[in-house]
Design goal:
The structure is a homotetramer.
Chain A lengths: L1 E5 L5 H9 L6 E5 L3 H10 L4 E3 L2 H6 L3 E6 L6 H10 L3 E5 L6 H14 L3 E4 L6 H11 L6 E11 L8 H17 L3 E9 L9 E8 L4 E7 L1 E13 L3 E5 L7 E11 L8 E11 L7 H15 L7 H19 L5 E2 L20
Parallel strand pairs in A: 1-2, 1-4, 2-3, 4-5, 5-6, 7-10
Antiparallel strand pairs in A: 7-11, 8-9, 8-15, 9-10, 11-12, 12-13, 13-14
């Protein structure tokens, strides 16, 4: 397959390197409007074709698929043009700058019968897949709450807030693990370094199943933290992405509640058991992700992180942002207006 | 001074032990309505007088001060009776079960000219005092945000939620450090083990100065965490109360922002400097606290954690709880109806 | 049983407290030559009899057992007198100041048919017992090596070196776990603060089974470290006594070696599996130890840490010290001259 | 300068990449006897010349310098040939397989007036340079002892033991920091996976200044540890190379000793002050090292890690190995037979 990478900035080189190592790829074209970036690409990958005008990509019928790694404001325009040109399309996260844009992309791809996939790379990371497996197996019991922290010093973005920059990672993981999107969200943020761009945000999530969640994102933190705690009725799990050796820990801990008996008195028992760090093989998530995109493009299968997955995250981001603008009030997620709406899961059963 | 301890439950023995070791104390009386507790007290402290009826305490004119360590619902009644009996009164945190009750205690004590103090013990802890000193010195610069986590497995209370149980610690420390109470708060909680008592809560705080804050409290956490991050414009500080050796760390980190110049472009520079763990002497906070109460009772000085300090925390707890009942909406703190209202600090200057 | 505690210094109060809580004990007598210590004892335990002259203990036929917690140079004299007076005898570690003294105590107790036990308290600690169980089960495979670190800042002893102060803990645990004493030991030490008393020592151990070991002890360390690594052919184990939550970790890691085949080439495979922190119940080792001593005194059973256990540790300490005096050369452990010598285990089979 | 890299195995690609980015380099030639490796080189660096016969390197008069990254047994032969061909020569650590070989290289280079440098890369690492600066400033006081641990699971070498593989790092750092080599060393090792190749070693070092040291190296460890503790009379320092954020910590801790006065009693005081993690800039040690080699080759300056530095480490390795063969006895380091012997530092003064 001949694949084009559109946008050769921070992330583009990783896409190109992985495409070149993939056996499904026969040729790669790099496109960037910035001549400096193109020159940088030509230097690193001398045998790869580079073009400065994206219309050359659309016009080249040998190109069957594109990977778009440009600023988020351009995702909708480029994605739509790519689909219009009949190409399977992969767009970095977040898939678009608004729910309306994301819905339009989903609809366009479905009508064209083309693969649309979003770069929620964490969903292809071995620990994240392992955690989904653990949750789905029911071994944590009924999920009570999740708490995520994704903070470090820098790097401030000029065009998007810390919410649009960092929260897509946690939102996509939570939706993947829980099979559920929140019904309501709120956000209290602070814009300290740049007057109009939040650099810290405390996000709360309410799910229909009763699960509650918290996500803290910040560009102004003394330490780099990347951890998520998942508390279930039977066990609890901590995912610490900065701990190379003990990335996932499962705590056999819980509280057992006995219904009140004759005396109207309930009893609580605390259980403290083993802690297990499962061995998780090391594979590069980006490699798995790109291969999955190419596979779906070839076979027509629905990607794990399809356009609707991208849409769900954008819906949540938009509601979170709206909460920040409305004095941190709880905001419902936008109702989906596609014909076959993205289903909001009903009450999740324990272990399902 | 002859001092009475009212309530000999979980905390009472610590109060008695500290009183017995204090040179300002000439006699201690222990009062508890539960005969089993009284017997336990008599066994541990054979030379200390025990009484089962609190009226004996009120009636004993040799008792000049009382320390009340009973369930929170009884704080107002016992505190008021103690003040009515002319005794200086120390009440464990939270000082009362509602703003109205707390205000009544403050008013009563002020009218009677008696010392009223609340057991916000952390404010007498060496690392907490050191952090206040650091913030007040201005070395962190302007405070941007604070983020606190106080979670562990258990112990569930039957009468109060996790908010009333754990959040008073963080609220009292934040108010002590920042010289400011929040104007608005919100809370998203979850009641999983007992249907009507929250066991996890995500609390957001908005201060008038622009500071934002987050407090997470939980009785359902795999690990015991007790840490607070304070981010300032110049430096950042982490207080980890579970780390015996490096309890406070000061990170010389920050972002410098240059105003846009001719090209309409601003520049951000990240500064990463040394990390310093200041040496902090080990003294028992409870000992300092009790001595401070006795000193204030003797001299008439205003305690660091006076009744108004207790009131401020109760106002915040009440608003947090109200937010939980009102679908997590932002709630203003109750307006203070005492004649001389607890002042809400106006915009704090950097380094003040 | 009426029990006497001889020596009420740093450790004595813990012994007394535990004896008073033990149902096998009917009376406790405290003996110390120092009147200040006796007064301190009388204040803390008003109902306990105190005596200043140890002959009163020997002469009191109602006293069936003694616990000796005095400086190590007095262990032999007091222990021998206690046994001569017909009393079951518990001596704090190390059991004596030399192999000859320890052997004399062992012989005396055996001839008298009395219980002699040494205070190797760690052997009664839940994680240490759990580790023995794991090793004995064979799940670590053949043990390759052990590495122990026991360091902190202070507290310097005036009469004994850091080796006699700290190494008994590690030696007794290793012998308990491995069922084997080293054949040879060496030590490189340094005496920096006091010119004749080592405050740091690097100890190497060679066991007949092929196991090698290292013990580092220091009073001059920036951090308090208490950990032991045990490497086996199948799994590896880390015991970190300063980590309250994850005290023991079992790593399913190892190297598999295939014998050279036709090409004279061997192959190594590395296995990296789960990490497990087994849940270990919290019980006070001293309580278990004292109860075990009383039980053995009552029933005549041989204590887990009998006199021979104390002797083995003293033999090792003596050889280690001799190595330090002889330019760090490898020293054989003293040959045991008791009639029924302490058996030196022959080559241990995996999993035995 | 035209530079040749001899040996394109595990490490070779890093050398080539750094040479290509260095402005002092005009051309690079890669030499390897293995055609597969040469092909790999040609694929990664298409514009770089590759040769399969090392005589082509010696014969090419345009090549002014060589970097040798081959197995240690070939270092002497290739190094000597390189110097004979008049080329400045850089050899990976350890510089040779024996003291005699290393001395021969040193002598040859000195007679030819050519630069000979060894790849003790850590001496060009920012934290290691910072630690030398701290020690040399005297702020740690007199150095008492050093304790190093370099352990992980794998990678077993077939030709050299764990001592020759891992200990050169720690030895070169210690010699660089302390300006001193040990007079005697001992080693207790274990060969568990391969019958004749040690995979764990406990090494002790005695320095003439009184400093003692311990180095533990292992290929059979559950965790990767890379830390060195340096204890001085005034402060203590920990270098943990696996901690990306707090790589170096300085503990303001120590013991103060007052000489005995009239009562024959000394007094010890413990000082526990701040802990400081100095900010250390991140630069690639290999880049600094290679640039330093090229600079020395151009100017004739003596490299920080010259041939004599390589010789000192080989002398220590040889003595350590000999100790292992001689039942772990203390071994003196080989006397240096070069005309101008590598000076063994005499008693180091505090803070010097």
């Amino acid at each position: 397959m001949h694949v084009a990478v559109i946008g050769y900035g921070y992330w583009g080189p990783n896409l190109v390197r992985n495409l070149l190592e993939n056996r499904k790829v026969t040729a790669v074209t790099i496109c960037d409007v910035n001549p400096d970036q193109l020159e940088r690409a030509a230097k690193r990958f001398p045998h790869v074709r580079t073009v400065g005008d994206v219309d050359q990509v659309w016009a080249d019928s040998s190109i069957e698929a594109t990977l778009i790694a440009t600023p988020v404001t351009t995702h909708h325009g480029l994605g739509k043009a790519s689909l219009a040109a009949g190409k399977h399309t992969f767009i970095e996260k977040p898939i678009a700058a608004s729910t309306a844009e994301a819905e339009d992309l989903v609809r366009t791809a479905e009508q064209a019968g083309l693969t649309l996939m979003v770069g929620h790379t964490f969903e292809y990371s071995p620990p994240v897949m392992k955690i989904r497996e653990i949750i789905q197996s029911g071994s944590l019991g009924q999920i009570y709450y999740v708490s995520a922290v994704r903070v470090n010093l820098g790097i401030h973005q000029k065009d998007v807030s810390v919410v649009w920059d960092l929260a897509p990672h946690d939102l996509s993981m939570l939706f993947y693990w829980l099979n559920e999107v929140p019904t309501q969200v709120s956000m209290l943020g602070g814009a300290f370094v740049q007057p109009t761009v939040s650099d810290v945000a405390f996000i709360n999530l309410q799910f229909e199943s009763g699960i509650v969640g918290s996500i803290q994102v910040s560009w102004l933190s003394p330490s780099k933290l990347r951890h998520i705690t998942i508390v279930g009725s039977k066990k609890m799990l901590v995912y610490d992405d900065t701990n190379a050796v003990e990335r996932v820990k499962i705590y056999d801990r819980g509280v057992e509640f006995k219904e009140p008996t004759s005396f109207g008195e309930y009893t609580l028992t605390y259980r403290t058991g083993d802690i297990v760090t499962p061995h998780i093989p090391a594979t590069e998530p980006l490699q798995t992700e790109i291969d999955h995109f190419l596979e779906c493009a070839l076979t027509g299968a629905t990607p794990r992180t399809d356009g609707r997955s991208g849409l769900r995250v954008v819906q949540a981001l938009e509601a979170i942002e709206r909460s920040g603008e409305n004095g941190s009030r709880m905001e419902r997620l936008a109702v989906n207006d596609t014909e076959d709406p993205v289903p909001v899961r009903v009450r999740r059963k324990a272990g399902s």
